Amino acid sequence: MTDFTPRNDPAARSGCSRVLLGAGLVLLVLSVAGGGYRWWSVRQALREQQARAEEQFGPVFDKLDEAVRSEQGPGYDIDETIKVIHEIDLALQESESLGDWLQQMARRDYHDVAPEVLAARKELMEVLFEIYAKQAEIEDQEEMWGLTSELLLSALSVVGGDADLGPLGPSGTLQVDREQARALLEQLKERQDARLQLGRDERALENKLIDRLVAYADVYHRYVEEWDRLCTVRDRAYLAVANADWDTAVSAADAAIAMAPHEREAHILKALALIESGRIADPETAGDVERLLAEYIDRHPDRTAPAFLLRGVLHARLGDLDAARLDLQQAAAYYPRQADALGDMLDPYRMRSYLRKTREGSYVIELYKSTMLGAGYMSPDLQQARLLFDAGDFEGGRAKVLDHFSRRRAQEQWDFLLSDIEFAQVLLGEDFRRIFPEDQYLDLVVKPGLIGSRLSVGVRNRSDRTLHNATLVLALHFTDMHPDDYEPVVAGDTRPAVLAHETTDFGSVEIDFDLWGKHKSVDDIVTHRAILVANEAVLWVDTDEYKIAEAREFHDPDAATAMARAEAEARAAVAAGGRSRHGLVERILADARSGSSIRIDDKALLKDGVTITLPKELAVLRPLFRLQYGDEVFTADDNLIVGDRIELRFDSVDDFGSGEHRGDQLQLVASTVLGDLVWTWGPEGGSRFRLINVVGQGG
Questions:
Q1: Contacts 24+ apart (CB under 8 A), 420-423
Q2: What is the pLDDT of residues 459-487, one digit of tens each?
Q3: Which of 38, 124, 326, 501 has the greatest number of C-beta atoms within 10 Å?
Q4: What domains are defined for the chain?
Q5: How does pLDDT run across 623-635, given as a tens digit for each residue?
């Protein structure tokens, strides 16, 4: 049989080889073509990614370049510089993607920012641009964003000293060097299992990123230290204002202005201190204050509200009431519009968290917030109310006060509610009390819930006035808080009315939240107070226990207590010119001598009761009453306002009608915020007593 297998046929073997060779050539061509196509695809993807990177980074680079060119003048605003540093890094932390972050940076205003900071930030971003331009795949872009954003934040948070202070702590020492930055990068890459797609330039670009990061960190820290030094001097001015030490406030503000001529806060503090010190009685000083505020308004046209307010106060003190009224109206118009701009430094102030660890630090923060957002002394409404009261327009002043607190409620600015009512009591004095002189006749009723961390809250109204549209805001003093500090908590829903001679239930409120990093519940409450905001009045509402303790503290001869009270009065003196109530006491004493009466309520087989009526105006002094008879002391079983009288009822005092009573005098003692008032009645036989005298003691 013939063998036809190809191996035995030379021609066949030759043909097969040619077929194999052709196939190999085809495969080679296809392979080269495929490789070329892949190379071309990668190059095309990189070109497209380069274009996308230019489109995203370009607006930011243009904005930074423009700001650097425009800020080549004689100075910059260190506060604005720190704010921008903080905002950029805060946006870096909160943005979900590089695109989001870049959009925020392109929208922001870099006016008055130090050019060196902007230039260093741009150089760092140029490296990020180079890296981003090489990340053609979506997954690589996401890894790049996660890795580089965390690297920047981690590197800038490396601070020597107290780690709790953060990058804006006092006199910290930033210690970022190349070795630390490289170690951070390697740790992040390992933890995130990420690798930047950098090609042959990987090591060079990583080194470039580290170099630029270290350079920016050096610039960053130098300006943070500069701001820190400024804050040290400026904080002294804030504390001096809080203590009404006007000379120190002026000198500290001058020192701060010399360090940072374009800053805002010290300029406002200096003007306030010069006004309240009384130096404006000198026409030259008054002119200096006028120029200082005019320059502030010209320099900061988008943040003029505090300057207009102080200029209004200045004009009022100088007797130009029309100009004062106009300035205060402008301040009132601009504060809401400027709230965001004026408050944008609050985040850097929050980063100075150490301030909240002391009472003095809290003064700095609270006074800053009040100054920049229009609360307390810096409230245009309260200052306008003062002008109206001074002009004898009580109803106009009353309406302005109530409008102010109504807006606070509508805006839910509960923190400012506390400072506003404190300053209204001092700034407006007797006139503020006249709005609702019966405030002592509203009692806070608080009971812990049976389950969980809840409080049941109500208001007992012992006055004869019904308050409408009433919102109750608890002011709770917790453990670890400084004395006189309170945390506001809204209690339930607004009630249609707090009825006269009734108790209104405000429901229950959950007390379960973090306060400065510490968990607080009902068990952590030291003191319960509240503020009631209604159509007719705004007033403190306290528990009976608090009122009694307050009266005892006022009469405590202990030097430490007296010093604490004097310190509180000095802080309140920021509202200089607040009216004294001592004149009111004299008028009340005169009315009490002619308008007080006593009645013995005979009770068969039982001890008789005593009913005493007093002038209603006495309520403005927030009295706490006790009746003394012989060696016994009685508290009122009923203490109500009825019409134009205060009616006190004491049950079971003595059997006066038996003829066997001791013949002792009856003394009624009213402990008030300005000392004791004492009524003395002498027996006339049987159940009759006559008024001997009414005198004031202490205060």
A1: 420/375, 420/376, 420/379, 420/382, 421/531, 421/538, 421/539, 421/540, 422/376, 422/572, 423/375, 423/376, 423/377, 423/379, 423/382, 423/572, 423/574, 423/575
A2: 999 999 999 999 999 999 888 887 778 88
A3: 124
A4: 49-226 (no CATH), 436-542 (2.60.40), 582-697 (2.60.40)
A5: 889 999 988 899 9
